[in-house]
Specification:
Strand content: 15-25%
Number of domains: 3
Radius of gyration: 23 Å
Helix content: 25-40%
Structural class: alpha/beta
Largest sheet: 11 strands, mixed
Shape: globular
Number of helices: 17
Number of strands: 20
Distance between the termini: 59 Å
Length: about 500
Amino acid sequence: MRGFVNSFFHRLYHYRYHLIRSYMDNPHRIQNAQLQELLLFAADTEWGKSHFFHDVQSPEDFRQAVELTDYEDLKPFITRMMHGERDVLWPGKVDLYSKSSGTTNDKSKFIPISPQNLYKCHMRGSWDTMTLYYHNRPQASQFADKSMLMGGSLSSFAAHPDTTVGDVSAIMIQHMPWVARPFFIPDFETALLSNWEEKLEKLAQAGAKEPNVVMIGGVPTWTVVLFRRILEITGKSNMLEVWPKFQVYTHGGVSFTPYRHQFQAFFPSDTVDYQEIYNASEGFFAVQDNLDEEGLLLLLNNGIYYEFIPMSEWGQSNPTTISLAEVEVGKNYALVISTNSGLWRYLPGDTVIFTSVNPYRIKVSGRTKQFVNAFGEEVMVDNTDKALAETCLLTGAEVREYTVAPVYFQGSAQGGHQWIIEFVQAPNDIEAFTRLLDLNLQRINSDYEAKRFRNLAMLPLRVEVVPGGTFHNWLRTKGKLGGQHKVPRLSNHRNFIEEILAQVGA
């Protein structure tokens, strides 16, 4: 029976792939249609009326009618929507809100998820992910075996109980079609538990007892913790001994680069795939369509209209945006989105680099608020991830977590970068590791290399090694354990790094 069901879904995915190909072949027409559809839907909302959506005929008109926004700009409107007001940013009443966990700030962002956004963006993105996986691997058996759910939790909004808030992963789990539920573990009550440590233990116990798991998805940080616990329970040496049929790990949220070596140890086989997705609270933006190449296919037909801010415009009071047709391969852009949940010319804070424009593929290079540029070095997360991965490969080290911040000029002393690293396997010689890391970062980032020339503008980077569990303990003090919560890799201030150092008494 399960084989028949898997065969059915295989045929369904084959049909869906042709739909994906249609917007790969006609990206600009599809994007223009997305914009017109968004404007039509929202024309009679409060936002649409005040911005004269009925009169907007082109992308140029749209840019003139609506200024760029961020969460603080839309927060008053979203708050009213959470209290039950209708037709504010999006038509009708919006009852679901994703609690954004992009940073470890105490403030939370609540992103509206309309029914259209849930089903035509987030859920559609999940279907597209599996469509592209089955296209790459026709022998896949997601619906002949089991997949593991690893999501967040949900709660009612205290001021208006009809409003539900939670991680986007939990919202998607709650609304999963009944036909798919028998193919997932654990039970949905466990999957949506709010106590992360209790949930982690129950996930591990369930995973240890189920040998037919072929797929799991989640943020690498927490998946590593889960796998280590499963191995403790079972006494096995790697996850393939627990799940011999395992086929694919679907990951997102943070770069996979620093974790790849650990996962290869968990699954010591060339037959296991790693598929990256880009599913944020604001929308399901992209998915890896070719498992043998870097880059994620930009999903152009899921209720999102895209614009991009060139790096030269970052920090400007009124930055110029460009359309999809104007982007270039290899350049950094800040993402701007208009969505079918009422986010209008909104900056989610992510930066991307295009790896291809035919079709349009991207990779996430960092966050507009997660970079280090204290001395003109313009270091992005993509740079530090690569430098760290290459250094680990050459030294045999294995990193669990890290974060980087500047050390600013003090008097006549020069500045530089300070790294805090939590190792799974520390290098034999930390000084040699540090020197090599600095050299690799110079090779990857020419601006950093220029500032490091003869130590004239910057001193060599410094590495502080912290005990195992330091980063998880820090996240616990922030109330940010589990789900999509993650450690900020880079910051242009020392707030996070000073908190962590104070915690370990350094």
